[in-house]
Amino acid sequence: MNAExxxxxxxxxxxxxxxxxxxxxxxxxxxxxxxxxxxxxVGPSGSGKTTTLNLIGGLDSPTxxxxxxxxxDIAAYDEKNLTIYRRDTIGFIFQFFNLLPTLTACENIEFxxxxxxxxxxxxxxxxxxxxxxxxxxxxxxxxxxxxxGGEQQRVAIARALAKDPIILxxxxxxxxxxxxxxxxxxxxxxxxxxxxxxxxxxxxxxxAIGKMGDRVVxxxxxxxxxxDVNQQQLEAEDIEW
Length: 241
Ligand SMILES: Nc1ncnc2c1ncn2[C@@H]1O[C@H](COP(=O)(O)OP(=O)(O)O)[C@@H](O)[C@H]1O
Ligand SMILES: [Mg+2]
Fold this sequence. Notes:
With 241 residues, this protein is α/β, with parallel strands linked by helices.
């Protein structure tokens, strides 16, 4: 494995001000993620998982600290640079899939591709190829409402791949799925990590999923409580909840 540090949170804090109340979502987080690593961040609701992922994904900026990705501190980026960073580096996968309901599976991905490149002819084929990659080619013409939750999530993963991101961030990707559907989604993520070398950072409240990571980071009250190294990663099919 390439042991280069890809994501480095250095003493990162995030405080949300709600009128007079300050919510300390992250309180001095330090974490290094290596290129090609599969890291699972586990913690109870409110422990700061989504905040962590949104900061790494450039959807939000830290209150203090450094957030170094590929040797650049993205905490110092302005909105324009953050937009480019999100587009070129990050693929996001959300709990509720967030597919556009009036577009078919294939069109959802074409839409994402067209945001990146306007070479119209190739877009349809590329979108279809991405669906094949997540074993959803046969359902290309189906609308989200015609797909199960697990199938929608696989389409959402294909969409996240539109930009060929080196880092995949997944926020409770199985949170809305039973474990059989969830296993298939996790299988796709495990393959994208192992076969294509994409770095995966997955956050979940579900400790069982931690066993498929190279490392498990336990979050508590906006801080890292401990980090476990899995000597052997569990296969996606062996995870149940
Ligand atoms: N936009 C926001 N405004 C105010 N407080 C927030 C916001 N986002 C998150 N928080 C608070 O920050 C803490 C961490 O939230 P979050 O990162 O969403 O946790 P998790 O994803 O682990 O459930 C919680 O106390 C939450 O209420
Ligand atoms: Mg969350």
